[in-house]
Amino acid sequence: MNRVMKVHSEVPFGHQLFVSLYLKDLHLNAVVKHDRMEMHYLAWETVRKQTNPFFQKGTGFEGYLVGHCSDAEAALEEILQINQDILDAIARMYRFEYGFRSRLMKTLVKEANDSEAIQIWSAYFGAELGKLRARILSDNEAQAFRLDTYRIVSTLPTMKYDAVDDDIFQNYAIGTDSEIEYGKLAISIGMLPAHQQDAWLVADNIGEFGHPLIRHLLLHDPDGC
User: Fold this and answer.
1) Contact predicate 58/132, CB 8 Å
2) 3-state secondary structure of 174
3) Which of 46, 107, 142, 159 could anchor a disulfide with 172, C-beta 3.0 to 4.6 Å?
4) For residue 207, what is the DSSP state?
């Protein structure tokens, strides 16, 4: 029997998105699309919070590691490497732009609402997912996990949004078709050595830049956020 967990929270960068809609004289309902992008996000959140194969609460990347990593420790190392590669790519691209790299990290953890940084994190996240999806095409175990995740997502209601007090809030559900398994690894940033903590910050936060409302607004008007 499917179980669901309901989520009520602020949309990532909800205030900034509200201001963007106001300045462009758009209503919230005009930009909401219940499409494949929304399903991808619900699948990501379902894996991150409910059906994670390795961790009590993960990052969302774990679904792409089924069949590739034998245990939680191996999955953690893979996730850290994936996200360190993203950081390294950013460091090469913006080699001498130390101020902008600082803005990127502050935007990542929502200490800043930098429009350009939001777009860049969204682009790197999309590119990484493209590589991971290509990698699992020949992995039957990973494909089975992916299909099962989307089977669960297909039973969930669509995401709902409300504009309240110059902010945007979301209501959605994520689900699982089995009891939550205990004994999975619990990860916190404090468990990691200092040189791996930035990679974990990326892993733990970059999925929000795939939020459908952010992606639709960015695609609708790249300068709009």
Assistant:
1) no
2) strand
3) 159
4) G
